[in-house]
Design goal:
- It is a single chain.
- By secondary structure, this protein is an alpha/beta fold.
- It has a domain of 211 residues: 3-Layer(aba) Sandwich (Rossmann fold), CATH 3.40.50.
- It is built from ten helices and twelve strands.
- The strands form three sheets. The protein has a seven-stranded parallel β-sheet with strand order 3-2-1-4-5-6-10, with helices on both faces. Strands 7-9-11 form a three-stranded mixed β-sheet.
- Helix 5 links the parallel strand 5 and strand 6.
- The radius of gyration is 18 Å and the shape is globular.
- Bound molecules: nicotinamide-adenine-dinucleotide.
- The site of nicotinamide-adenine-dinucleotide has 30 residues, from helix 1, strand 2, helix 4, strand 5 and strand 7.
Length: 311
Amino acid sequence: MKIVITGGAGFIGSNLAHVLTRRGEVSEVRVVDDLSTGFKDNLAGLDVHFTEGSVLDGPLLDRVFRGTDTIVHLAALPSVPRSVANPLASHHANATGTLTVLEAARRADSAQVIAASSSSVYGANPGIPKHEDLRPVPLSPYAVSKLASEAYLAAFHHCYGLPVLPFRFFNVYGPRQPAGHAYAAVVPAWISALTTGAPVVVHGDGRQSRDFTYVETVCRVLTQAALRKVVSCDPVNLAYGTRTSLGELVTELEAVLGTPLNPQYVPPRPGDVRHSHAENSRLLRLFPEIEPVPLREGLERTVEWFRSHSR
Ligand SMILES: NC(=O)c1ccc[n+]([C@@H]2O[C@H](COP(=O)([O-])OP(=O)(O)OC[C@H]3O[C@@H](n4cnc5c(N)ncnc54)[C@H](O)[C@@H]3O)[C@@H](O)[C@H]2O)c1
């Protein structure tokens, strides 16, 4: 089986490349990535066919997609604050990028397309836990671009019979997640702050909650989705319902690191949602075999990785 990962030099994509290249059923892994937020080093030592380029480049995608069975589309400009600063860039990479990928997948004779949407699409909808039938109320250009992406997947399934699977990722964390830049996610940002002596910054009062998923759990689901060719035109929450407040995350990390974090509380950021907690019965029905990695173990493995790979 031949699999393409768009955005495969990024955090989740490179972890997936590490998993897929060890699977006997997978004969070839191809990566297309423009390295805008990813790093070629993330793929060092792996037997992958790497093409540097953009998912906005249709002819390039035609070459990369030729003869592949599955496309795992992860390329995007992530981050809510990045999209607030530059909405058009997020729209191009995320929404137009997804449309370009779908068009190329259609030309490549209906390869399956698995794609990453985001829990941010629930936005201002106060319903908790978040189940897929809640009305999306996006609060940021990033969330709008992700909602457009999953709607394009459903439309391509209906119009052209393309086999698709849109996942709504929640807060994914783990090895190879970049830290030390303005748009870093909380887990790598806090671990890296501690190792460099910088302050640990909490946006908001610390009572806002997130559903953290270890990246290996996400990769296990994506791998099964590709190998079993799972199809759904409805979005599927990819998280395990572990609602953790940022204050609780501070406590967990203090226990793992064996040192106090002494966080600095600063005002919340525009576009951030208050609570995020997945209802995941659709995921469990489609992937009953997946065992998620628990939060404490995931944090331990992440801290271990950051200690041995400080960039
Ligand atoms: N990390 C999370 O918690 C999370 C949560 C929800 C959704 N997601 C989604 O999961 C996917 C992967 O996210 P990630 O955390 O690994 O981010 P990442 O930034 O590490 O990976 C994205 C990759 O896409 C590449 N890319 C960006 N624009 C591109 C373009 N036009 N053409 C080709 N490559 C391009 C980047 O260089 C990068 O390697 C994204 O679609 C993101 O929106 C992530």
